Amino acid sequence: MHAWPASEVPALPGQGRDLRIHDTATGGRVTLAPGPVARLYVCGITPYDATHMGHAATYNAFDLVQRVWLDTKRQVHYVQNVTDVDDPLLERAVATGDDWTALAERETALFREDMTALRMLPPQHYIGAVEAIPGIVPLVERLRDSGAAYELEGDIYFSVESDPHFGGVSNLDAEAMRLLSAERGGDPERPGKKNPLDPMLWMAARDGEPSWDGGSLGRGRPGWHIECVAIALDHLGMGFDVQGGGSDLAFPHHEMGASHAQALTGEHPFAKAYVHAGMVALDGEKMSKSKGNLVFVSKVRRAGTDPAAIRLALLAHHYRADWEWTDQVLQDAVDRLARWRAAVSRPDGPPAEALLEELREALADDLDSPAALAAVDRWAAKQQAEGGTDEGAPGLVSRAVDALLGVAL
Fold first, then answer.
1. Alpha-carbon gap, residue 203 to 358, rounded angstroms
2. What gap in Å lies between CA 278 and CA 373, rounded to an integer?
3. Are 19 and 31 in contact (CB under 8 A)?
4. Which of 401, 304, 383 lies closest to 345 in space, CA to CA?
């Protein structure tokens, strides 16, 4: 599966700072100091309704992670998956009368268009669950053969008790896990499981649903969590720098994935930091496909909004914050974009070297994009009120905003 084209990231003078970021597993900030190549895995979409502003906010957060790392002169090895076969996708296809593969391909193509328009840096590896099946099957077989997984009526389940570190990502108690498992794709009430929290690794073929040859597992399809584990281990290995996604993935998805990988390898941790973006609401409720209260990037773009303004609307909120999308949020971003473009269109302006360092410090401090935007606002206001004599300043501001915030002025 192919990703989307990369926009050029301008080179900036000097060098950025190492990223200090909130780690869900420890509950505090950690300083990330990767080697020459930083490794990032971000969980991708299930392509049956793409791309809403909640998606965009999540991928914007991890685009900033990449940009901070690139500014430290590191390379970034970024991997993202596409869950192109799963119950919600199949259910939507039945409801709409679509072929499930056509639905997945159409929504994935739209997601690529939106990511390109928003100037999100693409992953080096963009892998679908279906294409990952040949690598998933041997992992499930290994877990089963080692005693970390078991069969139940043809399905294969992972035993959470096989990983001594289980629970160390989300740090939730058993009752909270059970409730979230039921809400987020698990089946804690199924009789016969060793532990209600045990997640499915391989679902035996069901009538009328797609299935693949699973070798000794029989025909079926993979569970949700093992998909990302297989892709991450294949392309990044254990102990990569950041596992990312929305805050609703901390449990069960990232918790279970970490345990799968740790049981497979005997190593800990799966990722050095677990980073989660907040939820975006509309009319007081979290945007979700099940509620149908979605604002789509493509719809806002087609209404004539500059994608740079959409990106500024996202950046106006801290990535970990839960916030609400409103018409005013978008209008404020449109106005800010106009002010910034007017400011950098002048032939000279106030010196901008200090602004560049403010941007670097704000983003290195747990991706504080609101502080970064405020710093550019101050420079633009000074430009409007006083002007300046530095001929290189507008160009430096434009390059810095592009390189660090992904906004083309």
1. 51
2. 19
3. yes
4. 383
Query: Fold for domain 304-405?
Result: Four Helix Bundle (Hemerythrin (Met), subunit A) (1.20.120)
Q: What whole-number distance in Å separates Cα of residue 50 and Cα of residue 57?
A: 13
SS3 348: coil
Both tokens of 147, joined, read 């005693």
Q: Do domains 19-286 and 304-405 have the same CATH topology?
A: no
Is residue 245 helix, strand or coil? strand
pLDDT in tens, the chain (409 residues): 999 999 999 999 999 999 999 999 999 999 999 999 999 999 999 999 889 999 999 999 999 999 999 999 999 999 999 999 999 999 999 999 999 999 999 999 999 999 999 999 999 999 999 999 999 999 999 999 999 999 999 999 999 999 999 999 999 999 999 999 999 999 999 999 999 999 999 999 999 999 999 999 999 999 999 999 999 999 999 999 999 999 999 999 999 999 999 999 999 999 999 999 999 998 877 766 666 778 999 999 999 999 999 999 999 999 999 999 999 999 999 999 999 999 999 999 999 999 999 999 999 999 999 999 999 999 999 999 999 999 999 999 999 999 999 999 9
* Residue extents of the structural domains in the chain: 19-286, 304-405
d(CA 185, CA 176) in angstroms, rounded, equals: 15
Closest CA to 310 of 322, 292, 298: 298
Integer-rounded Cα Rg, in Å, for the chain is 22
Q: Which fold has domain 19-286?
A: Rossmann fold (3.40.50)
Query: Two tokens at 391?
Result: 């001929």
d(CA 223, CA 185): 10
Q: Is 20 in contact with 146 (CB distance < 8 Å)?
A: no
